[in-house]
Amino acid sequence: DGGITQSPKYLFRKEGQNVTLSCEQNLNHDAMYWYRQDPGQGLRLIYYSQIVNDFQKGDIAEGYSVSREKKESFPLTVTSAQKNPTAFYLCASSIGGADLSNQPQHFGDGTRLSIL
Amino acid sequence: QQQVKQSPQSLIVQKGGISIINCAYENTAFDYFPWYQQFPGKGPALLIAIRPDVSEKKEGRFTISFNKSAKQFSLHIMDSQPGDSATYFCAASNAGNMLTFGGGTRLMVKP
User: Fold this and answer.
1) Could you give the CA distance from residue B111 to residue B109 in angstroms, rounded to a whole number?
2) pLDDT on residue B1
3) Pairwise CA distance, residues A77 & A103, whole Å
4) Most exposed: A95, A98, B5, B67, by fewest CB within 10 Å?
5) Residue A75 near residue A22 (C-beta atoms within 8 A)
6) Average pLDDT over residues B57-65
7) Does the distance separating the beta carbons of B93 and A104 come in below 8 Å?
8) Residue A7's pLDDT is what?
9) Cα–Cα distance between B96 and B105 in angstroms, integer?
């Protein structure tokens, strides 16, 4: 079955720690995305990548970092600079190309990050 | 200009009834309007999408109505079922811009 796998499902972080959330896809998609979901605020774009070794900031990139060394993988690091990291994080992918705006996005089942 | 406003935040409907969720936008350049459905503990999944060249699109019990002049679009769920209980997100985008999501509507369909 093709899809997106996010791990872990639940993650706890101590103050001042960096944590990395995993996202792997076997859909052969070029584009990948990270969103943050907070109650009542919908999904907000953190970072996206149109192709390997390239990524762009989204609307709320401060305090986060990403890498895209492989087509299948797009890990997100929540750094200690992110002052309010408690949220549900969603990874998504789409076919890719020059214009990502109207492509259906396929989502993973998310990682819930909490601060201890 | 990039905001998409969604209402209501929560909705309770009896089984067999019609669920209606509304979204409004400001950016007249938006040309793609998808709806996503999200069950608890899961990621959203694309439900149905519309472009502004049509006023309505129907897929099974789900219908999107689009009013370009009012800059509004809505999701209608006919014959609502308990299995439709989920959170629904509208979104909008245009060439060169990423999806902007509404705040979500939590739908509960009572048996």
Assistant:
1) 7
2) 54
3) 25
4) A98
5) yes
6) 96
7) no
8) 94
9) 27
State yes or no: pLDDT of A71 exceeds 70.
yes
Which residues from A are below 8 Å from B when comparing CB atoms? 4, 6, 33, 40-45, 48, 58, 90, 92, 99-102, 104-110
Q: What is the pLDDT of residues A27-49, one digit of tens each?
A: 999 999 999 999 877 899 999 99
- Chosen from A101, A103, A106 to mutate, greatest number of chain B CBs within 10 A: A101
State the residue for tokens 């996005």. Answer: A105
Looking at beta carbons, which residues of chain B come within 8 Å of A107?
43-45
The helix, strand and coil proportions of chain B, stated in percent and rounded to the nearest 5, come to: 5, 55, 40
Is the model more confident about A116 or about B4? Answer: B4
Neighbours of B88 (CB within 10 A): 24
* Confidence grade of residue B96 (pLDDT, cut at 50, 70, 90): confident
User: How far is the first Cα of chain B from the last one, in angstroms, to the nearest whole number?
Assistant: 40
